[in-house]
Structures are given as C-alpha cells and as structure tokens.
Amino acid sequence: MNNELNAESSVTLTLDGRDEALLLFGSRDQHLRMIRDALGVRIIARGEVVHIEGQENQVDQADRVFQQLRQSLRSQGNLTSENVRTILAVVLENDDRQSPQNLTALDKNRYVRARTDGQARYIHAMRDNELTFCIGPAGTGKTYLAVGMAVGMLRQGQVKRMVLVRPAVEAGERLGFLPGDMTAKIHPYLRPLLDALGDMLEPEQVKRYLEHDIIEIAPLAYMRGRTLNQALIILDEGQNATIPQMKMFLTRMGQGSKIIVTGDITQSDLPKQTRSGLADAVARLEGIDHISVVYLGEADIVRHPLVQAIVKAYESDKPRRRRATESS
After folding, report:
1. Is residue 318 predicted with pLDDT exceeding 60?
2. In sequence order, what DSSP letters do the residues of 107-131 get, joined into one string?
3. pLDDT tens digits along 235-274
4. Which of 262, 267, 264, 235 lies closest to 168 in space, CA to CA?
5. Is 67 exposed, middle or buried (0-12, 13-18, 19+ CB in 10 A)?
6. CB of 252 within 8 A of CB of 228?
7. Cα-atom radius of gyration of the chain, to the nearest Å?
8. Is 178 exposed, middle or buried (0-12, 13-18, 19+ CB in 10 A)?
9. Can you list the alpha helix ranges (DSSP code H) found in the chain?
10. How many Cβ atoms sit within 10 Å of the Cβ of residue 323?
11. Which residues make Cβ contacts (< 8 Å) with residue 327, sequence separation at least 6?
C-alpha cells in the first residue's frame, strides 16, 4: 500500500504562450519555487512547457495548483505571491477531496462543502474577508455556498441575521402591483436563495426565522437608507445591479457584518447602455484589504455534467455551424 502511495509520477503542461509562462512563473521563477517547496515536486520549465515529477499525490496537487493559477491568471490578468500561497493552501487542505472544506452540517452525515478547488478558494475568501465577490457561470455553486456560509455563521452565533437580496430587474423593482406581502412579492426572484435554504434548514425553521426577521428577503431597491449590523448579507445576481445600486448596497454594511456578492458578468439583464454595477465594483475595489474577488469557471460546475458542455458552447466565440453543403 505504501509503495502505491509513494509511486513516482509525472505530468507535462503546455502553456498558451510565452506571456502566460512569464506571468505564471513569477519574477525570477519565484512562483515555481513556492510550488516546488510547498509540494516537494521537481519542476522543469522550458519555454512554454512545464514538466512536473514526484510522488503521484504530489504531482496531482501540483497539477491542480497550476490549473487554479491559470484560471486566476485568465480572470485577473496577473498573479501575486499571495495568490499562489492561497491556492497552495486550498489544494493542500482539499487534498484528494478527503478533507473537504465544510461550511455547515445539514445533519450528522451531510455537510455543505467544497466540491472543487475553486469552490474551496471561494470558502477561504468568504471566511477571511468582510466583502467577497464571486463571479462565475451557472452551476458553480456561487449562491449555494454563500447561503451555506450564512447558515453556518448563524448557527455558530457569529451573526444574528441573514439578509438575502436580489435585483428584481424583470419587474423593474416596482413590486407594488403584485399581490401579497413583501415576502410573497419578491418570492419568485429569490427562488434560488430559498431553494438553497430549504436544503439546509427544516421548513418550520425557515418559516420561524422569516417571522422573527432572523432571515430577511428583500429586493435590492428596498435596501436604501439602512445599516445592517451583525448580519451576513448576500446579493445574488449582482450583475443586474446598476453602479448607483451597487454603491448603495455595499455601503449598507454595519459593525460585525459580512457581504457576499455573486453573479455572472456575462449574463446581465440590464439595458445594453447600462454598465453592470458588479463589473464596476470589481474593477474599483479589487486589491483593497479585506475585499476578495473569486472567479469560478467551467471546471467548478457541479450540476449535471452536460451543464459544463452547454456553458462552454455558449461562451465560444465561434460556435460550430453545419455547412450548407453537407448532405443530410
């Protein structure tokens, strides 16, 4: 058994070009040295090719680290030593999925947990920062893990309230004409958040929390003029917030609170001439202490396997077309 665990292995990665290699390796190859020292692998980099050798589990870890670094590089355009340290910590803690990042217990045998290294980075960011932006396509667990973080903090007494917010763009946020109280009016627009809550809490508990304002659900427009203390506040579908709305929302944070903003900047429902408040906020705020921006990608999609293929097809710049001359 020990021989199997200590089996030698290797993997060769081909990068997209010299520019990617220079950014990935870091100044004087410092990123490569960090990976080598942390994982105990041998790394040989020549031009655009990276060859990794070592024990099988260590090579697997290194491969996953490079995947995460390349994804971050594509999203952010650069890498820092802190990025490398964070990804190394995530991969080591999430090694082989045997010690997954648990957010909260659903019961004795079930947990809300990271299922990919990217999701583990997201959990790290939520735990370590007061404001976290998570950007990624459908199915990557952006909303589900944010709700899991809120439920976990609520159960542990770290916050007193959970506030779930979403822009009701489809209704123009003019909800007065809809029947019922505020919960009933906004219910259709918060369905993903409520579905996640339903997985983590008993229906009676959700109802009781709503009745006692421990859980609050509201459209984004109704956040104006408020200060929220000791709360975890989630803005879902943040790409549908305008710049003034995003500024208004982010400044609702009070003492002892955290904010999590999720969204997919490629799927904005705002008018074409209106810039997304999510894209604007990320550009303005990235790099500020206690603010983290996490990008998830196709590899983090945890829904039906076909969802990855569907997302990839829709994001392709040149979708395949059937030639007119092809015979039927």
Report:
1. no
2. SSS-EEE--SHHHHHHHHHHHH-SE
3. 999 999 999 999 999 999 999 999 999 999 988 888 888 9
4. 235
5. middle
6. yes
7. 22
8. middle
9. 2-5, 18-25, 30-39, 56-76, 81-93, 117-128, 142-155, 182-186, 191-200, 203-211, 243-250, 277-285, 305-315
10. 7
11. none
Kindly state the tokens that stand for 181. Answer: 């109280």
Compute the residue count for the chain: 328
Whether the full predicted model's pTM is greater than 0.90, yes or no, is no
The two tokens of residue 248 are 């208004």
Q: Of 252, 256, 274, which Cα lies nearest the Cα of 265? A: 274
Angstrom CA distances, 222 to 47, 101, 150, 176, 253, stand at 54, 34, 20, 12, 14
Alpha carbon distances (Å) from 109 to 112, 144, 150, 211: 11, 18, 20, 29
Amino acid at 306: L
